[in-house]
Write a structure and sequence with these properties.
Strand content: 35-45%
Number of helices: 4
Distance between the termini: 49 Å
Structural class: alpha+beta
Strand order of the largest sheet: 1-5-4-3-2
Length: about 140
């Protein structure tokens, strides 16, 4: 049986995926192969490989990206992660050349967990504020 502590740790590990220095195998340990991203990026592939693609993009653009979990709430098979992150903009993001500025992100992800892995993800971030920081 999975405990709340187990689920909380899985959600914290999910947040750690976004860190540029996260272990490469963490994606395989946290995400189910068929994970559904309900808020995909344009052109994102389905499943775990699609999320890996997004993570690699963010790590290329923000090579020092670091996410901090502010809150983890667990209820049955779902969990909420409220987070903030910082990273230095060193790559082309949405057609904007590198600004070399430290950018602050914030957001909330909701995940559904089955079999000890994330099988669904909904993510909401401060995209407008990020765009303003890049301008």
């Amino acid at each position: 049986m999975t405990t709340i502590d187990d689920v909380t740790q899985l959600v914290r590990d999910y947040g750690r995926l976004w860190d540029a220095d996260a272990p490469r195998d963490l994606v395989d340990r946290v995400l189910a192969p068929e994970v559904v991203d309900h808020d995909p990026q344009p052109g994102q592939q389905p499943g775990r490989e699609g999320l890996r693609q997004v993570l690699e993009l963010y790590h290329a653009v923000f090579p020092d990206l670091r996410l901090t979990d502010d809150d983890v709430l667990v209820c049955a098979d779902r969990a909420v992660l409220r987070w903030h992150a910082t990273g230095t903009h060193e790559g082309d993001q949405l057609g904007i050349p590198a600004t070399h500025r430290e950018i602050r992100f914030a957001g909330i992800d909701i995940v559904r967990i089955e079999g000890g892995r994330v099988v669904e993800r909904w993510g909401y971030g401060n995209d407008l504020q990020v765009q303003q920081q890049l301008s």
